[in-house]
Amino acid sequence: MSLQKRPSTRKASIATSSDGIRYALAVISRRAVSSMELKKKLKGRGASDEIIEASLARIRELGYLNDREYARRRALLMAERGYGDYAIRLFLEGLGFPEEMAYDALGGIPEDLGEGKRIAMIIARRKDLGREKLTRFLAGRGFPLDLVIDTVGGVEE
Fold first, then answer.
1. 17-65 is classed in which CATH architecture?
2. Would you state the torsion angle of the CA atoms of residues 146, 149, 154, 155, taken in this order, to the nearest 10 degrees?
């Protein structure tokens, strides 16, 4: 009985800035990420702070990493999926975006996707829910309670 050696599952560590740039480009080619997410991924691969900063600077210089644009696109996507401004802002801040950038991203949502119109779209899709469940659902999606109550029509007796 011979024992075979298993192939190594360890991730290759990042020792140079060119390794960091190569890895960052591979990550970005799969999906859009924020600089904070990319930093975490590089750190997880063992890159030093200097390599991380040099890699991020080069990726930004090439135009592949733009946090403002990423935040704006993410806010628009969440608005289209029926989330309120509060939920969107908290999500963006959770990704590491500064509060100011999150508010700027919310300002980029077109008027035809305003919170009132998003609530109306959800109500049209969720006609099967009673007023109470609909109110809880909308509040859980990050819409202001006063706007939800005004739109849904108050509290059932």
1. Orthogonal Bundle (1.10)
2. -100
User: What token pair was written down for 21?
Assistant: 């740039």
Say how far apart CA 41 and CA 44 lie, in whole Å: 5
Query: Tens digit of pLDDT for each residue in 78-118?
Result: 999 999 999 999 999 998 899 999 999 999 999 999 999 99
Global model pTM greater than 0.85: no
Q: Where are the domains of the chain?
A: 17-65, 68-152
Helices (H) and strands (E) in the chain, counts: 9, 0
Structural tokens at position 76: 């628009």
How many Cα atoms are found within 13 Å in the side-chain-facing hemisphere of 111? 0
